[in-house]
Design brief:
It is a single chain. By secondary structure, the chain is mainly α. The protein has one domain. It has 4 helices and no strands. Helix 1 runs antiparallel to helix 2 and helix 2 packs across helix 4. The longest helix has 32 residues. It is globular.
Amino acid sequence: MNKFRNWFPALIMMLIIYSFSSQPSNKLPNFGNLDYFLKKSGHAIGYALLAISYFYALNNKKYFSAWLLAFLFALTDEYHQSFVQGRFSSIYDVIIFDNFGALIGLGIWSLRERYKKYAGSMA
């Protein structure tokens, strides 16, 4: 039961990402001039959170594995999106926004962990 609890955040993030990519293009909001920026930022933030949740599920030990899982999920989700009405898959979304989102998320998490160790050693 403990392992499921560790994987629960990752499962929730995968469900959220899947539900967004399942929306037909005519059901997606349009944010005007900010549309591209906000949607691509959503990719990066979503995959940052997914990679962090994978890292948590892996007992905070395997950065590469957490990144790889996020990257593989991005590939499969882009493929899934190619079957959704009015949507298309883009390897650029995977490589640029999803991949870098995951890397940045894990990088921030690593800095957070280092800071916690540093602050703990100062006490």
